[in-house]
Amino acid sequence: MVESAAARVNPFEFGGELEPSSLIDREEELDLVLHTLEQGGKLFLIGPRRYGKTSILAAVEHRLAGSDVVVLRHDAEVYESLGALAEALLASAAKRLTGNLDEAVAAVKRFASKLSPGVTYDLVEQSLSIRFALSQRAAAGSLPVLTDVLNAVDRLARENGRRVAVILDEFQQVVQAGGAAAERQIRGTIQRHHNTAYVFAGSKTRLLADMTNDPGRAFWKLGARLFLGPVPRPAWVEFLLRGFSRAGFRASDVAVSHLIDLAEDVPYNIQQLANLCWELLRASGGGALTARRADEALTRLVARENAAYTQIWNSLTQAQKIAVKAVILEKGTNLRAAPVLARYALAASTMHRALKILDDRGIVREDESVGSIRYRLEDPFLAHWLRMVQA
Q1: Helix (H, G, I), strand (E, B) or coil at 225
Q2: Do 99 and 187 reside in the same domain of the chain?
Q3: Measured between alpha carbons, how far is 320 from 328 in angstroms, rounded to an integer?
Q4: What is the domain range of residue 270?
Q5: Which residues, 6 or more positions from 40, have their beta carbon under 8 angstroms from its beta carbon?
Q6: Four-CA torsion 246, 250, 253, 258, nearest 10 degrees
Q7: How much is the pTM?
Q8: Model confidence over 242-287: pLDDT tens digits?
Q9: What are 50-102's pLDDT values in tens digits?
Q10: Whole-number Å distance between alpha carbons of 1 and 193
């Protein structure tokens, strides 16, 4: 039998933005983000890493392509300073909101004159870049540079009769870099904008939740909030069964449920593990996905990542290593309770400090459920690696 082209393509994607068609059971979230941007509103999209926030935002941008909404989407985490983020945002706004590069350059100089921008462009590549004056670069960590650019973008949109959607991913970087006054400055700026909609997305769930939930803070009731949770199990089971069966592989509800258990319902890790299971089945000439095969795939996967996991582990202090093991063995609950602290020979203050550093580094995160707090590993496969190497 000749293998079809569809059967040769691994359907389980990970490691980048998913194609809009590959998102699983996120229509409600997509619709809310789209509605916010089309109505000129403001939204905080909050969810852990590996849960698909960036893919949702990419899908929204794809759906708005060709509409009268100009989407400016930037990841705050990839820029070394707020000044660099502001430069990139202004450059993309000028290029997207004007007819050609000459008009874009003129718009930058007109609407952002107080920032003394230096503009370079390439007619062949149709590229545009902006550098602020040295005095502004020296203060690149200063939030007013970014708020001045947001004001310029809104004025540019009004001048050109367009609507703009500014999407800032990993938004907590902006607030942390801007200091205590950042929230007030951003609110004071964007609440006056009538031509620009905003989506602020971030993975520091506790930080963003506190920022938007406290009546005493500037972001309270600034916009709607959407907390991104796990994809419902039935949707995952259906998706996984379909992906394996398309290539002629057999799979049962029990086997794919075990795969989801191993990945602790984290979308990125489910896709990653399913991808390797699919490849192993194809390499062996077919057959069935079983719980044992999923276990084998996970062992191979963490072995491949041994160097990365080893680097993470060796970068931790002794107290932080103990805290990681406590998160795993205690399933993340009651970590500051006296019996748990005694079991791991840590003082309450030491455990608190270790967990905070691990959270700041993106190794663990806090989950709130029915009033209780549970710590979880950002990458659940780290636990399997640790059990493997310490066996």
Answers
A1: strand
A2: yes
A3: 13
A4: 233-304
A5: 163, 194, 195, 196, 197
A6: -100
A7: 0.85
A8: 999 999 999 999 999 999 999 999 999 999 999 999 999 999 988 8
A9: 898 999 999 999 999 989 899 999 999 999 888 889 999 999 999 889 878 88
A10: 61
Other CB atoms within 10 A of residue 54 CB: 19
d(C-alpha 295, C-alpha 262), whole Å: 8
* Those residues with Cβ within 8 angstroms of residue 381's Cβ, 6 or more apart along the chain or in another chain: 263, 269, 272, 273, 298, 301, 302, 305
User: 367 and 221 in one domain?
Assistant: no
What distance lies between CA 70 and its chain's CA centroid?
Answer: 21
Mean pLDDT (the chain) is 88
- Same domain for 267 and 208: no
In terms of pLDDT, which residue wins out, 376 or 203? 376
The conformation of residue 203, written as its DSSP 8-state character, comes to S
Query: Is residue 290 helix, strand or coil?
Result: coil
Local structure of 331: helix, strand or coil: coil
**CATH number of the domain encompassing residue 298:** 1.10.8.60
Q: Pairing between strand 42-46 and 224-227?
A: parallel
Please give the C-alpha separations between residue 185 and each of 144, 147, 180, 192, 222, in angstroms, as whole numbers.
8, 7, 10, 12, 13
Give per-residue pLDDT as tens, 302-313.
999 999 999 999
Using only C-alpha atoms, the chain has a radius of gyration, in whole angstroms, of: 24
d(CA 121, CA 102): 9
